Amino acid sequence: MTAASTAASTAASAAADLERRFADTLKRSRRQMFWPVGLAIGVVIYLAYAWVAFDMTSLVQQSRMDRGMILALDSFAYKVHVTEDLRDEEGPKLSIEGARQGGFKQDPEWVRRSGDQTAVDLGDGYSVTLQDRSLTLFAPGLDQAISARVLEDGTVTMTGPQPGWVKVNDRRFEARPSLFKRVRMTRTRIEVHRYFLGWENFWFGYQSAFHGMGLLEAWDYAQSQPQIEAGLSNTQKLLSDIWNNKEWQHGEVFQALLETILMALLGTLVASMVGLPLAFAAARNFNPLGPVRFVIRRAFDFLRGIDYLIWSLIFIRAFGLGPLTGIMAIAFTDTGTLGKLYSEALENIDGRQVDGVKSTGAAPVQRYRFGVIPQILPIFIAQSLYYLESNTRSATVIGALGAGGIGLKLVETLRTGQDWENTLYIIILTIAVVIMMDVFSGWLRRKLIKES
Predict the structure, then answer these.
(1) Quick one: which of 331, 180, 211 has its CA closest to 266?
(2) What is the pTM of this model?
(3) Residue 175, CA distances (Å) to 42, 84, 168, 179, 192 in order
């Protein structure tokens, strides 16, 4: 027998010996190797079932991705309308979609009027000329301009090439060469839309003396000019125009934010102050009366078993709209949750610390103060601050139901379908408030727990 065969035989014998001696361990190891694969297969099967059960194929086919892209574009860009009503002879008018008042004081440089003709430059080589119930669209790459007209009987006609981004029938002509450009004609109206990136009039509305200026430019202008408005310094006038901007409603938005924060703060405070004493009555090691403990624990289950949205609807019906309903909805829900958490924390305290305080001759109140409170205070602080963060988001949702605050302002912008930039603005502010509450509560939690 060669050395190689001897070594192979020895290795096989050793492997067989290991298999015999550690059969159970090796069997478990193989099973541990295959369970992740089985789990992955199970997840794939479940996802396939969910796709069929919820008919996701039909939902995807019915989805309007083009409309979704337009709505997304509306959130970070503004659309200028050049509109001509064919039922009157006033000529084209300019406006920003969603603007609540006023209009352009003068035509921008990309709109030129000459007699009864209006030329609109759409950028990137595209332009439109409006005249006498007709439009002419010039586009790069086309040998001939596209013309559309509304006849006396209301029929829409078109001549010239028809690229893929042009749709026409006897009632409507529409051209959308890109998301940032759109031309539309019906029997009563011609509309030319052009998008610009940014939030127009964010700082100053149409009626402001600072309209069209950036923040720094307006500040320099205010410092260099004589008094703009009687009774106000130029700095006060600048800040007043920002705060009272009717397009973006900064003042109303920030007041709504404050209302939402107060709603969350007061609701959490009431829940914490009510939940803590009830937790002592629900804890087994502090209340020997079983029936009382049972009733209080079931009350906790009842309060937290009903979602805060349901509570808010109940209180809206009972007390009407307003922040009080939001405060009560948060307080009711969190009293049940925090009371349960506090009572469990009380049942798990170290009894030896209480006995040590008792051995000094301390009164019952002192035993609670120095033997119990120091043990549950970190949990009390941590849980209360966590729910304060969570309730800031919850107050936004409750406000959308009618309790007021920033949630109601958010619903108002969604309802119009034209204020998506205001919607994004409010969402950004809400996220910023949640982040600030998280940072503040984390700092306060560390400080209070460390000092306790």
Answers:
(1) 331
(2) 0.76
(3) 49, 16, 8, 11, 10
